[in-house]
Amino acid sequence: MDYKKIAEEMMNKFAASHHHSPINRFQRFSRGETLALNYLAKKETPITAGDFCNVMQASSARVAALIKTLEEKGLVERSRSARDRRQVMVSITEEGRELISNRRQEMIGQLAEVFRQMGPEDTKEFIRLSEKFMQIMSGEFNHGEQTNRRLL
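Above: the chain's sequence. Below: its structure in token form.
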């Protein structure tokens, strides 16, 4: 089996699917602003801009631009740390929480409909293979041998 050719075909299919509205929305859900808002929504307290850089795995300039954009949209707030006035703290606003909650519910609804159309057996197989794929991509396997986690 030519795995490189299969991988190239999949990359082409993903690129071609980018133009289809539901798929495009799904891909956007996990990027940039939405990823940042999802993270902030899970935090109960504001985080430092530096910690935000680590979480986003992005430069301070990129994160500063992202925070500015989100702040202009009313989705996050910046403040100074009470302990260290040099530190900028970032927190999500109620408007940001509502937006993320709505987007999340929209995505859950769309995925549920796809799974309904796939049926129970295909859905279970898709989930099993997706979990295996993600484990391999995240390095949980060493040269094809499982290290810690058992697959379904």
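The chain is about 65% helix and 10% strand.
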